[in-house]
Design goal:
alpha+beta, four-stranded antiparallel sheet, three-stranded antiparallel sheet
Length: about 120
């Protein structure tokens, strides 16, 4: 009888951990977005990239030609001031933000966001 209770407790613990890992703390890509859009660096001062349910995030910003403009990382919302690696305000146009998210338990997801900079 003792073995049966231990087995039941083990199964319960496995189910509980699975549900927490896959439902309660899963990265929801719908909660990952950038604002304000369109982004006007001279007016807005910074673009916020909302990171939800991730323990760490890497962000690469590319211009329309695919050239890297800026690389950022963080554990909370990522802030971009609209400047490239040389400290200059980027030219108006379409930019692509690639966000790589790492969650609890090694979960990994990516999202691409397109923004207009004016």
């Amino acid at each position: 009888i003792m073995k049966k209770y231990k087995f039941t407790a083990l199964i319960f613990a496995i189910i509980l951990l699975y549900s927490i890992a896959h439902n309660g703390y899963s990265i929801n890509l719908n909660d990952v977005y950038a604002f304000p859009v369109p982004f006007i660096p001279r007016i807005h001062k910074f673009l916020t990239i909302k990171i939800s349910d991730a323990t760490h995030a890497k962000c690469s910003i590319y211009d329309i030609n695919g050239d890297v403009v800026k690389k950022l990382s963080g554990t909370a919302n990522i802030i971009w001031n609209g400047r490239n690696d040389d400290g200059e305000i980027v030219a108006p146009g379409l930019y692509i933000i690639k966000i790589e998210l790492e969650g609890i338990g090694g979960e990994y997801k990516k999202k691409i966001i397109r923004i207009l900079v004016q």
